[in-house]
Design brief:
CATH superfamily: Decaprenyl diphosphate synthase-like
CATH architecture: 3-Layer(aba) Sandwich
Oligomer: single chain
Largest sheet: 6 strands, parallel
CATH class: Alpha Beta
Number of domains: 1
Order of helices and strands: EHHEHEHEHHEEH
Number of strands: 6
CATH topology: Undecaprenyl pyrophosphate synthetase
Strand order of the largest sheet: 3-4-2-1-5-6
Helix content: 40-55%
């Protein structure tokens, strides 16, 4: 049985789900948060140590301003309303990406990381203003500055995920089969599951099925 430490998820399909329900894209984002909470609970039940969620990419700045503002307001409310509960449940929060938001949101993100820093049950990594290509370029520039040799180990040590094991599984909902500039370096040996369901439709049973499948497959890493 394969050990499972880290699950990464591209939560695709919120906006399309909202429109499908004859409502707004923002309604879909709001409902998608309910799925996030369900998956967090199941991740703890499954004793998985790391969960990385692709919340907002560097490319998402191209979206309409109203939608971007709604997403950040949703994130602010989530942190204000849930950070104490996350802390009580021994959950650590970490932001991967560049904190180039409003001063208010930056402070809230930093405070959330500080409050939960010593927690051990589950580490949730929120990929915010995150783009993998920029992350890799940033790592190489840091190595050049420090005059360290560019090796696989040294590049990994300069990534946002430097203290986090690479994902065992990547799940992408929304019936789209691409990585969208997410954890390109870290996903080299991950098992990838593309799911047809839109994110608000994804449930604990879907998640458990993926986990059980992963635990029982043969992983060769280039050998036979």
């Amino acid at each position: 049985m394969n050990p499972l430490k880290h699950v990464a998820i591209i939560m695709d399909g919120n906006g399309r789900w909202g429109l499908k329900k004859k409502n707004s894209r923002n309604f879909g984002h709001k409902e998608g948060l309910k799925t996030v909470e369900k998956i967090i609970k199941e991740t703890i039940k499954q004793k998985i140590e790391f969960l990385t969620l692709y919340v907002f990419s560097t490319e998402n700045w191209k979206r309409p301003k109203d939608e971007i503002n709604y997403l950040f307001n949703l994130l602010e409310k989530f942190l204000k309303n849930r950070i104490n509960k996350l802390n009580q449940n021994n959950i650590k929060l970490k932001i991967i990406g560049e904190k180039k938001f409003t001063k208010k949101l930056n402070n809230l993100l930093s405070l959330s990381e500080k409050i939960t820093n010593k927690n051990k049950t589950l580490q949730i990594n929120l990929a915010l203003n995150y783009g993998s290509k920029l992350e890799i370029i940033r790592a190489i520039n840091l190595l050049n500055k420090s005059k360290k040799k560019i090796t696989e180990e040294n590049v990994s040590s300069k990534l946002f995920t430097k203290d986090i094991p690479d994902p065992d599984i990547l799940i992408r909902t929304g019936d789209t089969k691409r990585l969208s500039n997410f954890l390109l370096w870290q996903l080299a040996y991950s098992e990838i599951y593309f799911i047809k369901k839109l994110w608000p439709e994804f449930n604990e049973k879907d998640y458990i099925n993926i986990i059980n499948d992963f635990r029982n497959i043969k992983r060769n890493y280039g050998s036979i």
